[in-house]
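If you are new to this repository, start here. Below is one unmodified record pulled from the training split, so you can see the exact layout before writing a loader.
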Amino acid sequence: MGTKNKIALVTGGSRGLGKNMALNIAKKGIDVIITYHSNEVEAKKVVAEIEAGGQKAAALQLNAGNTKSFPEFFEKLVTVLNDKFNASHFDFLVNNAGTGLHASIAETTEEQFDELVNVHFKGVYFLTQGSLGLVNNGGRIINISSGLARFSLAGASAYASMKGAVETFTRYLARELGPRGIAANVVAPGAIETDFNGGGVRDNPAINNFVSSVTALGRAGLPEDIGGIVAFLCTEDARWINGQRIEASGGMFV
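And here is the target side for that same chain:
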């Protein structure tokens, strides 16, 4: 029968970019475990779609901003790996789960700041730490950042700061996990038409027109513009890419 399929874990995989990443990874012949925060119905639809395409899939609930819940999550992950995938380890960790915030520096509250830290940086750091013993040697870690870590738009200071932290963390992952043959990279989407941040880019014509006007390719991004890049980073063709930030923004503010 040959070797077993490789397995990817995609956080926040029930909708938006994470869903597109999960579906594209599955098209590469990789089995997928997604996490969802609250929408189990949508998560199960993604699992069904992946399974209809011939790959194995599963969904697990995870609050990516609550590190206290991680030990229980990892117990469930080990169980599902064993029961559904006949495996004890996985190969690709995609830290995608996230929430948005649009607020000026003057009006950002400490509570909002803490929530962003917990989801986008602390959660990513410690979910990755907890995964180190479960990721196979030769695996990959892909962290999702944002174009906003490179260019600055008013109202994104806290969110973008967390993404900047994740980008630095990713380089350190590449350095420290190199001896295990594990590569770590960042994918930084530009403005994408999803329900993220209240669906502003998708649903607000003024925002969409602005994004299009500052993007070299002349339009806002779509989820399908991002998922394939993450999937590519899970393939052998991408084996020599390490410690890199790959921005996929259609050329915003180039």
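Two things worth knowing about this chain: The chain has one domain: 7-193+222-248. The first strand starts at residue 7 and ends at 10.
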